[in-house]
Amino acid sequence: MTMTTPTQRFAFALTLGAALVAGLSACVPLVVGGAAVVGVGMVATDRRSSGAQLDDQGIELRASARVRDIANDQMNVTVVSYNRQVLLIGAVGSEADRRRVEDEVGRIVNVRSVVNELTVGASSTFQERSNDLYITGKVKASLLDAKDIFANSFKVVTERGVVYLMGIATRRETDRATEITRGVTGVVKVVRVVEVVSEADLAASQAANQSAAQRGGTGPAPVTSATPSSPSPSSSGSRVPLPPMEPLPGSGAAPGQPAVTTSPVR
């Protein structure tokens, strides 16, 4: 029986990912979920409630349909939803298109906020997308190697060397993940779209999620220290209540608004 080291397994995964990218056309109008594939083990250790995970899948599917309806040759959009907060990255042809994509996605049921990081200009090249895939792999591997944080707390997406960290984590975990990511070769900037919770609230949330999973429930776990955000009119008919979100301190975001903190590489 042949044994493989973690490094060999990682290299093999990157090879498969590169082959997947190679099969894409030169222009990719839409990517859903940052081309992420989540296994059963990842779902079991996810800090989101099972209801939020299902909502995120639905949001990404609905967003793909909305963007496809308005897409043109100058649109290259990646849609990622985490705990009902949507990140938009990629490129569009005009500021009007940038706002239009945000408006369309923002009206989807259960979307509580949209972080619009779309740029106006040319789409990324095949080489840039391949490099982004490689950087994402290196960041994930570096987070896994760290012994003082839980790597599955963060979802990693890369666009032209800018790494986006999404997740539910404590301030210590967020700062540590940022530090690790900044140290990865090829990373231009780190953008944090993270819900910051206290250690006590995190423990209570995880306990509530486990209890709900054992009962077969899908309701979101409470985060008591955060200020609830106001649901959009389109989400008022949802049967799944929206959990609160606390922005990163110092982000300048108003309560209920997307919290985006950029961390340039030293």
Describe this structure in words.
By secondary structure, the protein is α/β, with parallel strands linked by helices. Helix content is 39%, strand content 19%. It has helices at residues 6-22, 40-44, 50-70, 95-106, 126-145, 171-182, 199-215, and strands at residues 30-32, 76-82, 85-92, 113-116, 119-120, 154-159, 162-169, 189-196, 261-264. Strands 1, 2, 3, 4 and 5 form a five-stranded mixed β-sheet that branches. Strands 6-7-8-9 form a four-stranded mixed β-sheet. Helix 1 runs antiparallel to helix 5 (126-145) and helix 3 crosses helix 4 (95-106). The termini are far apart. The relative contact order is 0.14. The model is unreliable at 18-28, 35-43 and 218-244 (pLDDT under 50).
Question: What's this model, at a glance?
Answer:
The strands form 2 sheets. Strands 1, 2, 3, 4 and 5 form a 5-stranded mixed beta sheet that branches. The chain has helices at 6-22, 40-44, 50-70, 95-106, 126-145, 171-182, 199-215; strands at 30-32, 76-82, 85-92, 113-116, 119-120, 154-159, 162-169, 189-196, 261-264.
* Structural class by secondary-structure content: alpha/beta
Number of strands: 9
Mean pLDDT: 77
Percent of residues in beta strands: 15-25%
Q: Return Rg in Å.
A: 18 Å
Total of helices: 7
- Considering DSSP H and I runs of 4 or more, what fraction of the residues is helical? 25-40%
Largest sheet: 5 strands, mixed
Helices and strands, in N-to-C order? Answer: HEHHEEHEEHEEHEHE
The outline comes out as globular
Uncertain residue segments: 18-28, 35-43, 218-244
Distance, first to last CA? 45 Å
